[in-house]
Write a structure and sequence with these properties.
The chain is of the alpha/beta class. The chain has two domains: 194 residues, 3-Layer(aba) Sandwich (Peroxisomal Thiolase, Chain A, domain 1), CATH 3.40.47; 117 residues, Thiolase/Chalcone synthase (Peroxisomal Thiolase, Chain A, domain 1, 3-Layer(aba) Sandwich), CATH 3.40.47.10. It contains twelve helices and ten strands. Strands 3-2-4-5-1-6-10-9-7-8 form a ten-stranded mixed β-sheet, sandwiched between helices. Helix 4 crosses helix 5. It is globular and about 65 Å long. One of its GO terms (molecular function) is acyltransferase activity, transferring groups other than amino-acyl groups. It holds the Pfam family ketoacyl-synt. This is Beta-ketoacyl synthase-like N-terminal domain-containing protein.
């Protein structure tokens, strides 16, 4: 499975180059909540159809637009999008309205629509006319890497020719209530374009694995997931490793153990902020950005994500190190 392109709307800016330069240079962001600067849905997407659109949907629609071409067969193009629990703001809005208003039909339909967990993926597909597989995965920080495994199965079984995979998280008042204080809350959307084969791809996804930490030992779960994907290459060939950045150092210790010779890139929580389900897709974009900045050369990269609720995921890429910005 080949990554042929990526795109990201992030606290670094609305341009892919903003993210690439920011993450490679380690440019610090302001303290406090970190929205995507200067992102106004109506300015990016127009007036029609955006009035009742959630911010997460707008981020997803705008990012997906950069990865689609006029030549794409939309009937064979799908979308696999990650989330933590959907739009927390719209879910709470529905709950509030159901208690404050006398009848269920007094609640605005658009509010109910945006509260559905698969709303962002569905509306993104409808906006762009994508009629291939459409799926929403909810697995916290591990979602992005798990989505790669899901997409791989879809492509290998011939369900689609092209897939967009990633995640979107919005910065709303409701989401601030779930912050754990370990890093500033941030929003954004990162997507990669995946094809079964391509001669001009940026990187090949060699393996993806996920492990459930039944005993609560996330460090061991990360080690197991990493060992599974590294069967496709040897640890001493890994050029860079990057983790999602959990509240403790279990993940970073696991990376240092399994790939002691690799360059460990800063976790996204340190540079970008807490983007929850979007951690994995932003990790992919960060690895590709670092590879491009290092010059063209074949490299192997290890990515891990650890969700404190007990899920660890890992992926290994063979990166070409060519220009990666769409």
């Amino acid at each position: 499975m080949i990554i042929t392109a990526w795109s990201a709307l992030s606290p670094y800016g609305t341009d892919d180059q903003d993210f690439a330069q920011g993450t490679v240079s380690g440019r610090p962001l302001p303290d406090g909540p970190r929205p995507v600067p200067d992102f106004e849905p109506r300015e990016f997407l127009g007036q029609q159809g955006t009035r009742a659109m959630s911010r997460a949907t707008a981020l997803s629609v705008a990012t997906a637009a950069r990865l689609l071409t006029e030549d794409d067969d939309r009937a064979r193009t799908g979308l696999v999008l990650g989330t933590t629990n959907g739009s927390a703001q719209n879910i709470l809005d529905v709950n509030r309205a159901s208690l404050q208003r006398g009848k269920p039909y007094h609640i605005q339909p658009t509010v109910i629509q945006n509260a559905a967990m698969n709303s962002v993926a569905s509306q993104t597909a409808l906006w762009h006319g994508l009629r291939g597989p459409n799926a929403t995965l909810a697995g916290g920080r591990s979602t992005g890497l798990s989505a790669l495994g899901y997409c791989r199965r879809l492509l290998l079984t011939g369900r689609a020719d092209t897939l967009l995979a990633g995640a979107a998280e919005e910065l709303t008042e409701a989401r601030t209530w779930v912050g754990d204080g370990t890093a500033p809350l941030a929003e954004g959307c990162a997507l990669v374009r995946l094809e079964r084969s391509a001669s001009d791809g940026l990187a090949e996804v060699l393996a993806v694995a996920s492990v459930v930490a039944v005993d609560g030992d996330l460090g061991t779960a990360v080690l197991k997931a990493a060992d599974r994907v590294l069967t496709r290459t040897s640890p001493d060939r890994v050029w860079a490793a990057v983790g999602s950045g959990t509240s403790d150092d279990a993940e970073s210790k696991a990376l240092a153990t399994v790939c002691p010779e690799a360059t460990v890139l800063p976790p996204l929580t340190e540079s970008l902020g807490q983007v929850h389900a979007a951690s994995g897709p932003f990790q992919l974009a960060a690895v590709l950005s670092h590879a491009a900045a290092s010059g063209p050369a074949e490299r192997f990269a290890l990515l891990t994500s650890a969700e404190p609720q007990g899920i660890a995921a890992a992926a290994v890429l063979r990166v070409k190190g060519e220009t990666v910005v769409v």
